[in-house]
Write a structure and sequence with these properties.
By secondary structure, the chain is an alpha/beta fold. The chain is built from 21 helices and 18 strands. α1 runs parallel beside α2 and α17 packs across α18. The longest helix is centred in the last third of the chain and has 19 residues. The chain binds adenosine-5'-triphosphate and 2-(4-methyl-thiazol-5-yl)-ethanol.
Length: 544
């Protein structure tokens, strides 16, 4: 019998410990298959060999009825005894070569891949599919490897070592995949032609479901539905000042009309300032750290700000739940890795958050963004340590490459603040001048830029990149006007909120931008494109 051709689009991995009360594994598997599961992997870590074989035969009877392949986890002997269609191995299990010799040429063999090193070691192996993960953190395997997140998944998919494997080898993604993040994962991994993600491998969501049939139908719909809002759907031009003004007006108009709720989980220092900034910018803030209400808030939320400025490790479950539910409802997530390079705890919290779900915007100062990029940066607390000195010549190119590389790895938008603010969607990089040195001596001006970005993006979901650019221009403009005639940082902070309020009224901004005072501030945008080889082209300057 030739090796069967397999539809890997909805792959169920069992875990009998997670079944709902009074439900047998056999019943749960059958219901899931009726909902659209296309492959079943039987994973039993606690059963004796005899019990495993007995259960394997029982489940095989069901899968056969529906013509769905049964894959046995880890145990070649059980796969042979049950005459299952295949075997799935990890790196502590039987190696692929031995498994192939024992099982023969007709059986399916799948392998777990958790990092780049394992992928290299697989060169030339006779296997049929790869289970890549964990994508996100999960409780199913408490001892699991660190989550890959979107950046780790993209690193793997871009790796040329796939050349040592059958071309277009199917991939299933595993670990924390649910109906809330599946489309994000598929979208984030798209564009890597060397292989194809065929679908999710799901454990807890399906196995613990009261209604697995209905849940699997939802998974199936998501697999074929168009992707959730990505940031690149909306084409826009910033070729001259007039185009920039038009874009600012259209973004602000939506903000003004909707007054979206912006859920903040933010630090104790800036809560009040950020809430006032949010109101002044046209949003409706709610500062809440109650895990019990994150899902309810996500239902009505416009965008979500996650700022780890004073976070303790106890807050990790809250972060997971908040990211998960905001991903589920498609609310943009803005992450501020405050002080990311200052301590071991902050470095690990950054990794935890980036491995918890899809993040639309990462916003930080230079020290924070370089930490996210994987550099070891000794930060002085929450303040940036700027070593890429100025914003001219080679150092401006270095900054442009830094933000665009981080954005490419996470397939999102990255903002790096400083005297000049840098923003990239991985393809273009824009350096935005403006702002005032007083911002450097008022705490929370970076944090509340995250708030304004979230406010602008909340109701402009099909043009996220443009919304972020507009947020920074408006923010910097308000900061400069607020500095006119003030005594120092204290009165600047008050004047700043006044100016933000004045500008965010759509007609106010529109009128103000066309006035000579605006031109006199000398704000500008410098724009680079990045080609497919990753090179930056010549930049173009637009004076506002
Ligand atoms: N010297 C400066 N000139 C112009 N703008 C500045 C200057 N310093 C900071 N800014 C502006 O201040 C805002 C915050 O940037 P900064 O890099 O200080 O953030 P941060 O370190 O994260 O702040 P915080 O942690 O206090 O919230 C940005 O909009 C940035 O453009
Ligand atoms: C000062 C400070 N410390 C933790 S968070 C924060 C606010 C600015 O990031």
């Amino acid at each position: 019998m030739p090796r069967p051709s397999v539809d890997y689009s909805l792959y169920l991995v069992t875990d009998s410990g997670l079944l709902p009360k009074n439900r047998s594994l056999a019943e749960q598997v059958e219901r899931a298959i009726r909902g659209g599961v296309t492959v079943v992997q039987l994973r039993e870590k606690k059963l004796s060999t005899a019990e495993f074989i007995k259960r394997g035969r029982e489940i095989h009877e069901i899968t056969r009825k529906y013509n769905v392949p049964l894959i046995i986890n880890d145990r070649v002997d059980v796969a042979l005894a049950v005459d299952a269609e295949g075997l799935h191995v990890g790196w502590d299990d039987c190696d692929v070569k031995t498994a192939r010799e024992l099982l023969g040429p007709d059986k399916i063999i799948g392998v777990s891949i958790t990092n780049l090193d394992e992928l290299s070691r697989l060169h030339g192996a006779d296997c049929d599919y790869l289970g890549v993960g964990p994508i996100y953190a999960t409780n199913t395997k408490p001892d699991h490897d660190p989550p890959l997140g979107i950046s780790g998944l993209r690193d793997l998919l871009q790796r040329k070592n796939f050349e040592g494997l059958p071309s277009k080898i199917p991939i299933v993604v595993i670990g924390g995949v649910n109906t809330g993040n599946l489309q994000w994962i598929k979208w984030a991994a798209s564009g890597e032609e060397r292989m194809s993600i065929q679908g999710p491998a799901v454990v807890s969501a399906i196995i613990s479901s009261e209604d697995p049939e209905d849940l699997c139908l939802s998974f199936r719909k998501l697999l074929t539905a168009p992707p959730a809002f990505a940031f690149s759907q909306h084409e826009f031009k910033l070729d001259d000042a007039a185009e920039v003004y038009t874009n600012i007006s259209s973004i602000l108009k939506n903000v003004h009309e909707h007054k979206s709720m912006i859920h903040h989980i933010t630090n104790d220092v800036v809560k009040n300032f950020s809430a006032n900034v949010c109101l002044a910018a046209g949003g409706s803030p709610i500062m809440s750290e109650n895990i019990e209400e994150t899902a309810d808030l996500a239902r009505i939320n416009g965008a979500f700000v996650l700022n780890m400025g004073t976070a303790s490790p106890d807050a990790h479950p809250l972060f997971f739940e908040a990211i998960r539910s905001n991903n589920q409802f498609g609310n943009p997530v803005v992450f501020d890795p405050v002080g990311a390079g200052a301590s071991k705890l902050r470095r690990s919290t950054t990794a935890v958050i980036l491995g918890a779900g899809y993040i639309d915007v990462i916003k930080g100062n230079e020290g924070e963004i370089r930490t996210v990029a994987g550099e070891t940066v000794e930060m002085r607390g929450v303040d940036s340590v700027d070593t890429i000195l100025d914003d001219e010549g080679e150092s401006s190119k270095t900054k442009a490459l830094l933000v665009s590389t981080v954005a490419q790895r996470h397939k999102n938008i990255v903002v790096m603040t400083g005297v000049t603010d840098w923003v990239s969607d991985g393809k273009s990089v824009i350096a935005i001048s403006g702002g005032h040195m007083l911002q450097g001596v008022v705490t929370g001006t970076g944090c509340s830029l995250g708030t304004v970005i979230a406010t602008m993006i909340a109701n402009n979901r099909n043009c996220k990149f443009l919304s972020v650019i507009v947020a920074i221009i408006v923010y910097n403009y308000a900061a400069m006007r607020a500095a006119e005639g003030v005594e120092g940082p204290g009165s600047w902070a008050v004047a700043f909120i006044d100016w933000l309020f004045r500008l965010s009224g759509q007609s106010g901004m529109d009128a103000l931008f066309r006035k000579p005072e605006f031109k006199e501030l000398g704000m500008s945008l410098e724009i680079w494109g990045r080609d497919s080889e990753g090179n930056l082209g010549e930049s173009k300057k637009v004076r506002l």
